[in-house]
């Protein structure tokens, strides 16, 4: 069986082909147009999806050496995401499924980020992923969630951010430092040579397993205002230390709640997912914490952290096995719940 998957929730147009549980191709077109605006412009995102989607799907089929007529099902991201962006992928998937007379599968983007752990590909044909249940810390541009995963399609959010996502905190901090969008990966890069304990930022602690990241941006803004008042070159002179300190603060905020979730549930298997799980500070700190605590730690391959259609195909494959299909009347859900 062959599943074609389409991802178009934000600023990546992506298509992937999965054959009998293994990823054969995963093509990602990242929209560069947004950089000049310092963030994703929704209307430009949907236009760029329209421009790229045919080519991206053709490339995914060609790389997998699969003809359209060999497809068994089409999976697509139904939400959450930008409405106009989701509409492009959903319309394309619906038309293709209708034209080929094959089943259509809706996928929740946040569930797919978690299921990226189960992706088997040419490099890792026997990849199995964590056993159940496990806790997944899903950290991305729009979400920060602690998820209890009891089965591939049985997930429960047990804690989440009450305001900004941690990816947003990375990107907004980078913007304050004058770095281009998306700044998360740049903070990671500069942090590598910096001292994580050079500067301290006040953080707010939410009750239970919830997070809050809106205050840290303001704290960094005031910190930079005070430091640059007497020293206009403060940022340029201390970029590595500032980046390392910001990253350390954000990572500790994540791990404090993750530790609490592990203690409260008694679960010993833990995973991270989403774009921020590409962060080397988080990956290293979790590895270390896992060793201290005796947890089995699962960290996704870099290419499956940020948005990609391979994870949509994986989620689609689980649903295909259960015969979980949708009709042509399905429409995108920008705020789709887990
Ligand atoms: P969501 O999945 O919540 O809908 P999204 O799809 O836009 O949001 P992703 O593509 O999963 O988000 O992740 C993008 C985010 O990951 C951005 O905020 C980006 O800065 C951040 N990110 C990517 N790589 C790194 C890194 N190495 N360090 C820190 N942040 C990173
Ligand atoms: Mg993106
Ligand atoms: Fe995402």
UniProtKB/TrEMBL annotation:
Reactions catalysed: L-threonylcarbamoyladenylate + adenosine(37) in tRNA = N(6)-L-threonylcarbamoyladenosine(37) in tRNA + AMP + H(+)
Q: Where does the record place the Gcp-like domain?
A: 23-313
A GO cellular component annotation here is: cytoplasm
Sites where the protein binds substrate: 138-142, 171, 184, 188, 279
The record's subcellular locations are: Cytoplasm
Q: Which InterPro entries match?
A: ATPase_NBD, Gcp-like_dom, KAE1/TsaD, Peptidase_M22_CS, TsaD
Major place of localization?
cytoplasm
Cofactor entry = Fe(2+)
Pfam families from the UniProt entry = TsaD
EC number of this enzyme: 2.3.1.234
Q: Which UniProt keywords apply?
A: Acyltransferase, Cytoplasm, Iron, Metal-binding, Transferase, tRNA processing
> Any binding details for the cofactor?
Binds 1 Fe(2+) ion per subunit.
Q: Does the keyword Acyltransferase apply?
A: yes
Question: Keyword Transferase on this protein?
Answer: yes
Its GO biological process annotations read:
tRNA threonylcarbamoyladenosine modification
Q: Tell me the GO molecular function terms.
A: iron ion binding; tRNA N(6)-L-threonylcarbamoyladenine synthase activity
Q: Write out the similarity annotation.
A: Belongs to the KAE1 / TsaD family.
**Protein name per UniProt:** tRNA N6-adenosine threonylcarbamoyltransferase
Q: Which organism is it from?
A: Fibrella rubiginis
Q: Supply the gene name.
A: tsaD
């Amino acid at each position: 069986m062959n599943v074609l998957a389409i991802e178009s929730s934000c600023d990546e147009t992506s298509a992937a082909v999965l054959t009998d549980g293994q990823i054969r191709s995963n093509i990602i077109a990242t929209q560069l147009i947004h950089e000049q605006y310092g963030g994703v412009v929704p209307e430009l995102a949907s236009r760029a999806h329209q421009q790229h989607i045919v080519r991206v799907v053709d490339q995914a089929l060609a790389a997998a050496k699969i003809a359209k007529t060999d497809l068994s099902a089409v999976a697509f991201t139904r939400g959450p995401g930008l409405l106009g962006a989701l509409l492009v992928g959903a319309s394309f998937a619906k038309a293709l499924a209708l034209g080929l007379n094959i089943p259509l599968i809706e996928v929740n983007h946040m569930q797919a980020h978690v299921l990226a752990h189960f992706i088997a590909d040419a490099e890792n044909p026997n990849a199995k992923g964590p056993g159940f249940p496990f806790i997944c810390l899903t950290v991305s541009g729009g979400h920060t969630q602690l998820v209890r995963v009891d089965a591939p399609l049985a997930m429960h959010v047990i804690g989440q951010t009450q305001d900004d996502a941690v990816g947003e905190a990375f990107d907004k901090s980078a913007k304050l430092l004058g770095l281009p969008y998306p700044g998360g990966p740049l903070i990671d890069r500069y942090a590598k040579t910096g001292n994580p304990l050079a500067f301290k930022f006040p953080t707010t602690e939410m009750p239970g397993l919830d997070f809050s990241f809106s205050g840290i941006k303001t704290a960094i803004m005031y910190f930079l205002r005070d430091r640059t008042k007497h020293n206009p070159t403060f940022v340029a002179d201390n970029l590595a230390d500032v980046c390392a300190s910001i990253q350390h603060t954000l990572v500790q905020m994540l791990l404090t709640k993750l530790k609490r979730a592990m203690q409260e549930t008694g679960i010993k298997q833990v995973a991270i997912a989403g774009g921020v799980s590409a962060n080397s500070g988080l990956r290293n700190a979790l590895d270390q914490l896992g060793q201290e605590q005796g947890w089995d730690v699962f960290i996704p391959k870099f290419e499956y952290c940020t948005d990609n259609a391979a994870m949509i195909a994986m989620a689609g494959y689980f649903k295909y096995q259960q015969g979980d299909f949708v009709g042509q009347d399905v429409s995108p859900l920008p705020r789709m719940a887990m």
